[in-house]
Amino acid sequence: MGDFPIHSVLQRCATAVADQAPAAMFGLRDEGYASLYEQLVSSLISVRTYDETSTEVSRRLFARARTPEEMIALERQELITLITEATFAPAKADNILALSQTIVDDYGGETPADYDQLIAFRGVGPKVASLALGVALNHPIIAVDIHVHRITNRWGYVATSTPDKTRDALAKKLPQDLWVEINRVLVPFGKHVCTGTRPKCSTCPVADDCARVGVEHSR
Ligand code: SF4
């Protein structure tokens, strides 16, 4: 599908979910939690945690500590309590404290705006680093989560078996101005329209452009 109208499709998807809550990190950024450090921490908190929960948890945490210096001043137990609703709270608290300490000790308190340096932090994988750099700094990095993976495959825009392979395929064909945008739009679109089971194809604004690969049951 070399002529897939990706700009127009994403624009229609964005319009369809304009009234829905934005993906957690984009929402936090728009509330003012826009620094790379805040985005890195909230991205870490969001791993395997519902968007609504991770947004709440991040807000509560940032009310107490918004910088690496403020974070390492917290007691470990207090940090665990602040983020307790996130999955794996004790491990995430340890990772947040460790990376904050390293940022203070080795980087003079400035979170390094570099993918390789970010993924060197314990607990920070490719998705967390990509999302933080993309959302905070608009770095042209594609953050592929399960929604982006599922929907671009249903469209027939890519044909891949894992989110990692989808990221590689998108890097080859997705126009760069959409690399951050695709995550911002397709997370809420995947929750409310092109859902995991029984997507709402009958009212979908991009149905005419969608190959519906692998979709057997829809609404
Ligand atoms: S037509 Fe169906 S499968 Fe295709 S994007 Fe819309 S909801 Fe998803």
UniProtKB/TrEMBL annotation:
<dbReference type="GO" id="GO:0051539">
    <property type="term" value="F:4 iron, 4 sulfur cluster binding"/>
</dbReference>
<dbReference type="InterPro" id="IPR003651">
    <property type="entry name" value="Endonuclease3_FeS-loop_motif"/>
</dbReference>
<keyword id="KW-0411">Iron-sulfur</keyword>
<dbReference type="Pfam" id="PF00730">
    <property type="entry name" value="HhH-GPD"/>
</dbReference>
<keyword id="KW-0234">DNA repair</keyword>
<dbReference type="InterPro" id="IPR023170">
    <property type="entry name" value="HhH_base_excis_C"/>
</dbReference>
<dbReference type="GO" id="GO:0046872">
    <property type="term" value="F:metal ion binding"/>
</dbReference>
<keyword id="KW-0378">Hydrolase</keyword>
<keyword id="KW-0540">Nuclease</keyword>
<dbReference type="InterPro" id="IPR003265">
    <property type="entry name" value="HhH-GPD_domain"/>
</dbReference>
<keyword id="KW-0408">Iron</keyword>
<dbReference type="Pfam" id="PF10576">
    <property type="entry name" value="EndIII_4Fe-2S"/>
</dbReference>
<keyword id="KW-0326">Glycosidase</keyword>
<keyword id="KW-0456">Lyase</keyword>
<dbReference type="InterPro" id="IPR004035">
    <property type="entry name" value="Endouclease-III_FeS-bd_BS"/>
</dbReference>
<dbReference type="GO" id="GO:0006289">
    <property type="term" value="P:nucleotide-excision repair"/>
</dbReference>
<feature type="domain" description="HhH-GPD">
    <location>
        <begin position="45"/>
        <end position="192"/>
    </location>
</feature>
<protein>
    <submittedName>
        <fullName>Endonuclease-3</fullName>
    </submittedName>
</protein>
<keyword id="KW-0255">Endonuclease</keyword>
<dbReference type="GO" id="GO:0016829">
    <property type="term" value="F:lyase activity"/>
</dbReference>
<dbReference type="GO" id="GO:0006285">
    <property type="term" value="P:base-excision repair, AP site formation"/>
</dbReference>
<keyword id="KW-0479">Metal-binding</keyword>
<dbReference type="InterPro" id="IPR011257">
    <property type="entry name" value="DNA_glycosylase"/>
</dbReference>
<dbReference type="GO" id="GO:0003906">
    <property type="term" value="F:DNA-(apurinic or apyrimidinic site) endonuclease activity"/>
</dbReference>
<keyword id="KW-0227">DNA damage</keyword>
<comment type="similarity">
    <text>Belongs to the Nth/MutY family.</text>
</comment>
<dbReference type="GO" id="GO:0000703">
    <property type="term" value="F:oxidized pyrimidine nucleobase lesion DNA N-glycosylase activity"/>
</dbReference>
